[in-house]
Amino acid sequence: MHIVFVHRRGPGQFVHIARRLILDGWTVTLVCESVDRPVPGLRVLRYANGAAADSGRAVQGDVAVPYVEAGRRVADILQRLARHGRPPDIVMGHIAWGGMMFVKDALPDTAMVGFCEYYFQPKGGDVGFAPSEEMDIARRQTLRLRNAVQLSTLDQMDCGVSPTQWQRSRYPSAYQRKIVAQHEGIDLSRARPDPLATFRLPDGTLLSSGDPVVTFAARDLEPYRGFPQFMRAAAIVGKRNPQARFVVAGGDGVSYGSGPEGNSNWRKLLLEETGLPPERIHFLGQIPHRDLLRLFQVSAAHVYLTYPFVLSWSFLEAMACGAPIIASDTPPVREVVTDGVNGRLVDFWKIEEFAERIEEALWKPDLFHAMRTEARKTVASRYELNECCVKTQRLLSRVLGSRAQSPHAQSRDREIPGPDRKEEVS
Hints:
A 7-stranded parallel sheet has the order 5-3-1-6-7-8-9. The chain contains 14 helices and 17 strands. It has 2 domains: 2-185 and 385-423, Glycogen Phosphorylase B (Rossmann fold, 3-Layer(aba) Sandwich); 198-382, Glycogen Phosphorylase B (Rossmann fold, 3-Layer(aba) Sandwich). The protein is α/β, with parallel strands linked by helices. α1 crosses α14, α7 (227-240) crosses α12 and α9 (289-298) packs across α10 (313-320). It has helices at 15-23, 64-83, 103-106, 137-154, 165-169, 173-176, 227-240, 266-274, 289-298, 313-320, 331-334, 351-363, 366-382, 385-405, and strands spanning 2-6, 9-10, 27-32, 34-35, 43-46, 90-94, 111-115, 159-162, 179-181, 198-200, 206-208, 213-220, 245-251, 281-283, 301-304, 325-328, 344-346.
């Protein structure tokens, strides 16, 4: 079998299933703008940059046109594959950046699976979550234009995959029957507790389990991932607890939203605002994955905050490492964490309460012992890598089988061959 993955900066969320399929003898091709990590045996075909600025939320301006151009470029590549006798049996790709828009125009009878990460809504999600953010008609129009790219793909795909039930629920109800809630998986053999783990800071300090270490991790340090709230809570904890040490992994760029006005990045702005002494907080930048896992293993209190938005891999990995979890009480987190059972949940905006929960984890670790165990059990029962890959393979097989039985049927007129209810990730 030949599968083509489409991702702007791939393989991204497809890295695990791509490796699995290659080991099983599939021909696996990635069509992308750029590669975020190498995968042995993965054939890469690049298309020129045709998408808008990289942002997880809708941006102002004519957002649809660049994504349409990306879709055309991907379709050209798919047609060339077909002309040279190497057409895919199935195409699976991220639907947000336009690359999947014209798959069925290029390959009308080829099975198509969309990765449905996030659908923008004017209420209940990231947009309008901050009290200071206004929702005017121009913003609503921008959201609708951004969603138009996804809608054109939702209409033609045979099936969709969304990492969590909450992310699936953001999509229009008319299309939810096509979408299966299925996470890409967490490697529990790597993300695991290790009481003997150590982590060396840039200044040479060696951290180990039992040290009063408060950790925070995000791709970039910005409001979408609650970095301002973390810094303000850390400043409170730091003043009251001289022994506490704060370690932050994440870059100074902007993955979602926008940068701060009048400052180069949120890190500098929040350091100035909080007055947290630089010697008390260690900024690591973006670190290798193995180092991030070691950081989770020595954490005495791991803080995870997010707008109502996509759930971070790193959060589930921290849970799998048995780190004491203190997280924002927002919808994607509530799908995973039950307050007092496998972590503590706090209102995103209540800084003092976050500080209190951090102090509780630092100085009353016995209260978190059972929660740490339950956190790993949660990930093991619902997000274990091998099981997730098996479920995704079964889904691909069902879609391929359905297309073979009815190759000319319009996907929107057929029931989608998703997994049994018991196989869905809830």
